[in-house]
DNA sequence: AAATACTACAACCGCGCTTTA
DNA sequence: ATAAAGCGCGGTTGTAGTATT
């Protein structure tokens, strides 16, 4: 009998369940030495009786460098709420905007903590006209940082966190000039880790056409697997009425997401 | 102190998309 | 052109830890 909570796939003699420290060490050491080349074939030479899928999951969600574990900050909570509002359950897309967080972590956080806050409460969808105005806005932070770094025509890509979510300003008008030089496929296909890019399924059913247009029109970088440039700007509409659960209607227009997140975070 | 309920999170599964042969 | 393999995503489940009765 295997250790508690751990079973073996009798056919393939693959181990399932919780990872031991030794397994973690083996996987980490192997990847450090050889890199990631083929998940399903790496397990054996790494000395692991695990499926490639299991190895990948463990690495992506736990062992990967620069991951942050532990409590979400107020800002991260704000970001999750706001992004979820527009993207729905696109956990990888949401996670890509949070430095060092995984889709699994974001999903778990939503399902265990935030979901119940929103359960049964309607999140009012922004009107189309409002969404349209949002489409071309650019996160001021992204703008300035890319200008600083760039000085070239190549879109730069620094992992950027949404900030100033309470300050829904800086909306600009959309224009064809903002279409990137990359095709949407180029822009969205990302070198290395496509999992961190937006894909064709990005837009959930309640993302407005205009928002989708925005996504396809942006200058996405191909240099950074983690980046989807300026999507945060999508969510900076100061006028979109969003009803946060537990908040009276009359507060909807005046209260910021930040207020809501603070309230949520502190309780 | 024990039993039960609840919460948080790691991990698995199935599906769909992309890449490769 | 197509089948197979590989990969990533989102949904779900299992379990350990904590709170409550």
TrEMBL record:
Principal place where this protein is found? nucleus
Q: Would you tell me the protein name for this molecule? A: Uncharacterized protein
State where the protein is found. Nucleus
Q: Which SMART domains match?
A: SANT
Question: Which PROSITE patterns does its entry note?
Answer: HTH_MYB (PS51294), MYB_LIKE (PS50090)
Q: Where is this region: Disordered?
A: 118-167
Q: Where is the Myb-like domain?
A: 11-63, 64-114
Keyword Protein biosynthesis in record: no
Query: Which stretches does UniProt call biased (Polar residues)?
Result: 143-167
Which positions fall inside the HTH myb-type domain?
11-63, 64-118
Native source species: Eucalyptus grandis
One term under GO cellular component: nucleus
> The organism's lineage?
Eukaryota, Viridiplantae, Streptophyta, Embryophyta, Tracheophyta
Which InterPro entries does this chain map to? Homeodomain-like_sf, Myb_dom, Plant_SW-associated_TFs, SANT/Myb
């Amino acid at each position: 009998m295997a250790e508690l909570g751990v079973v073996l796939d009798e056919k393939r003699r693959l181990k399932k369940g919780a990872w031991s420290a030794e397994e973690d060490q083996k996987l980490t050491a192997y990847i450090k030495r050889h890199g990631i080349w083929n998940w399903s074939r790496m397990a054996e030479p790494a000395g692991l009786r695990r499926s490639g899928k299991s190895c990948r999951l463990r690495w992506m969600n736990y062992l990967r460098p620069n991951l942050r574990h532990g409590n979400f900050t107020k800002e991260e909570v704000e970001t999750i709420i706001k992004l979820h509002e527009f993207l729905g359950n696109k956990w990888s897309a949401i996670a890509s905007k949070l430095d060092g967080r995984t889709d699994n972590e974001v999903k778990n956080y939503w399902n265990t903590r935030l979901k119940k806050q929103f359960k049964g409460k309607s999140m009012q969808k922004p009107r189309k006209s409002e969404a349209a105005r949002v489409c071309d806005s650019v996160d001021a932070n992204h703008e300035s940082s890319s200008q600083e770094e760039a000085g070239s025509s190549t879109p730069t890509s620094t992992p950027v966190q949404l900030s100033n979510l309470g300050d829904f300003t800086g909306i600009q008008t959309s224009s064809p000039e903002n279409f990137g030089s990359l095709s949407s496929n180029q822009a969205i296909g990302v070198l290395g880790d496509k999992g961190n890019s937006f894909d064709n399924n990005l837009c959930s059913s309640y993302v407005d056409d205009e928002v989708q247009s925005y996504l396809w029109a942006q200058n996405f970088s191909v240099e950074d697997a983690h980046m989807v440039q300026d999507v945060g700007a999508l969510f900076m509409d100061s006028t979109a009425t969003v009803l946060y659960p537990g908040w009276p209607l009359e507060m909807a227009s005046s209260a910021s997401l930040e207020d809501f997140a603070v309230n949520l975070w502190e309780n």
